[in-house]
Amino acid sequence: MRIVFYPGAILALTLITPAASFAQDTHIEAVRAELAALRSEYDARIAELERRLAVAEQNAAQATAAARPAPSAPSYMTGDPTFNPAIGVVFQGFLNANEGEPGEEEGFAVGETELIMNANVDDKFAAYLTAALAFEDGESAIEIEEAWVETTALPAGLSARFGRMFSGFGYENARHMHTLDFTDRALPYQAFFDEGRYADNGVQVRWLAPTDLFLELGGELMQGEGDPSGVGAHTLFANVGGDVGTGHSWLAGLSRLEQDSGQEVTGAHLVWKWAPHGNWKQRNFIFQAEYLENRIFGTDEGWYAQAVYQPIPRWRVGARLDGLRLVDEDPKRQTVMVDWSNSEFSRLRLQFTNNQTGPADVAEWSLQYIHSIGAHGAHTF
Fold first, then answer.
1. pTM for the complete prediction?
2. 344 pairs with which residues across the strands?
3. Is residue 301 part of a domain?
4. pLDDT digits (tens, 9 = 90+) for 49-74
5. Is the separation of the CB atoms in 85 and 77 below 8 Å?
6. For 23-43, what is each residue's pLDDT tens digit?
7. Is residue 122 part of a domain?
8. Do the beta carbons of residue 239 and residue 214 sit within 8 Å?
9. What is the spatial distance between Cα 149 and Cα 157, in angstroms, rounded to a whole number?
């Protein structure tokens, strides 16, 4: 069979093929445009429905609020939590025993029972109250430990606190008894401050620097002891800290307290914490140390260093060395403890101390319980 090629047919095929391809491309583009138009239309309809739903919900909320009877005066007994502060109570107690010289605090003792109340006042202020209920000389006594108001909306990293407060001096000073890792405060605080810590009436200002490294500067104007002017003490303190990887964090600081009575106390502290991958519930380790220098009629020095390790959940062991360098003596102690926490609200602690602060060494045993109910705020670093 002979195949004959016609030039006209070849030319026609050549012209028809691009035309068909162009028509197909045009059809695809038309379908895409129609799909985009439908999508845009549906998006607009969905947005309109969402807007109408939001308006309907807002109108319903306003109608509910308008239907609720307004109280003639603020009521603290209503179901509205606006006027209900967070309330918590911390119970503490001891069973003490001494081997050596008879101690004045042997036997059963009820420690300070702390009543804690705190809440936001409004969008600019928050308030905090701690009252210690204790037994002294066979009688009940109530002491206002802290009662202050703090700003929450100052600009540029500033905050201010006014009222009665634990001073920001040092590291252990601002911590309440139930948050300590041992049954008592370290020797320098017991020796240099009344009741083992410095608390006073006044104003505190803090500034947090806008840096990746934690940097905090602060100062206080306090009433002081027996000063008729009402401003007889002031403090300055600085803290710096940060994270090392995911498991380590640290904090270091310097503090200075001066009172018109003549007392001058300078302190330095260092805290190092570790937890694998930041998981504190499984294992953790805390090292804490402070050095204090007290000048009033002479120069006295005090220090302590302690370490607490949690090998498994709920169980911790710890050791502390603390001492003083006074004009004519160098008292010191060695303390070990083990505690068990059934939850964050309950703890039992057994502590042994080799006390070398008196004429003769005394072995001291203490079994402590700490239980809290109600609101329980987070502890500071």
1. 0.74
2. none
3. yes
4. 666 676 566 555 554 444 444 443 33
5. no
6. 566 777 777 777 766 776 666
7. no
8. yes
9. 17
